[in-house]
Structure formats: C-alpha cells, structure tokens
Amino acid sequence: MDKELKSDKSAEQKILDAAKQIFMENGLDGARMQDIADKAGINKALLHYYFRSKDKLFERIFTEEAQKFMPKVTTIMLSELPLFEKIEKFMSEYIDTLSQNPLLANFILNEIHRNPKEMIKKIWGSHRPPIEKVEEHVAKLVKKGEIRPIKGYELMINMVSLCIFPFLARPMVQWITKTNDDEFMKMMQQRKKTVVQFVIDSIKK
C-alpha cells in the first residue's frame, strides 16, 4: 500500500513538473495535454486520471506558483519594520523569487491579461493586496517630513516594476548587455542592491 501511494505521488509530481514547464512556456491557451503527458513520460489516459481537465491542472500550477511569494511579500509589507527596511526586504524577496523561477513573471502577466478577474482571485483569494497599510505608513512619514511626498501605491508600482521588468524583457536585456544566462542572474543579484538604493534615494530627504 505504501509503495502504491509513493508511486502515485511520484507520478503526480512528474505531471506537475511537466505541466509547470509547458504552462510557463506556452500559457494556458498554448499548452496541450498531450505535450504535458509526453513531457512527463506517461500516457494521456493516466494524465486525465490525475487531472480531468487542462483547466484544473493549470489552476493547480498557477496557484502554487503565484502563492510561492505573495504571502512572503505581503507579510513584509504588513510588518512593523521601518519603511526603508521593508523596501529592501520586499525587493530582495521579489528578485530572488523571479531568479529561481525565471518564467514566472511572463507566466503570471500573460494570464492576468487573458483573464484578469480570475487570475487576481487565484493570486489573492478573497483578500486584497495590503495597499492600505502601505498608504498609511507612507502618508505618516510624508506628514512627518521624513520622506519626500509620494503616494503609497506609487511606491509599490515603482518597486514592483523595477524588480519585474528585467525578467519580462530578459531576451532584450541580455542582447543589449551582451550577457549569457549565468551573467544575467549575477546581474540580477547585484541589482538587488542597486534598485533598493535607487528607490530609497528617490524618497529620502
């Protein structure tokens, strides 16, 4: 029984690993169940035994990938840390997650454009991003004169866009900078320092 259970888990994991790669490369519309079965090294009937539809399999993959870092960055932004420390931790976590999952940025962005309401619901569930907490924190510091005037949502957009753009435009970035894959990843690690300092300098008095 234990052996069968272990075998079942192994087969399911092979499917999930294969599906992740296919979905990341092609999105929901471009992915085919036969391609996933071939990638996993199983027949299509077995694939349908574990996951009855492509949509169900996609939902599992998307939710797992999106929620790998959403809870982490949410916790950071809801914390009582000083703002500059929040910025450093938030952007470092974002870049690390995208470095470990290079196709994640394009994957999520493509699916949000395809079905925005459904995709946002899958990422955040019934909760909204903690923008109000950020707004309050930023507004308080602006009022005290500790940072330059800026809206909390503007700060969030600046941070996210600076983190995500190089991954979205990776082929172009690598072509312009004449970097290979390893060099690109090293550049992203260095970028954790430079973009954090850039954002902090933009609001620091």
UniProtKB/TrEMBL annotation:
Q: Which SUPFAM superfamilies match?
A: Homeodomain-like, Tetracyclin repressor-like, C-terminal domain
- What GO molecular-function term can you cite, just one? DNA binding
Q: Which residues bind DNA?
A: 32-51
Indicate the segments forming the HTH tetR-type domain, all copies. 9-69
Q: Which UniProt keywords apply?
A: DNA-binding
Q: Does the keyword DNA-binding apply?
A: yes
* Pfam (any one): TetR_C_29
Q: Which PROSITE patterns match?
A: HTH_TETR_2
Q: Which InterPro entries match?
A: Homeodomain-like_sf, HTH-type_TetR-like_transc_reg, HTH_TetR, NicS_C, Tet_transcr_reg_TetR-rel_C_sf
- This chain's protein is named TetR family transcriptional regulator
Q: Which organism is it from?
A: Niastella populi
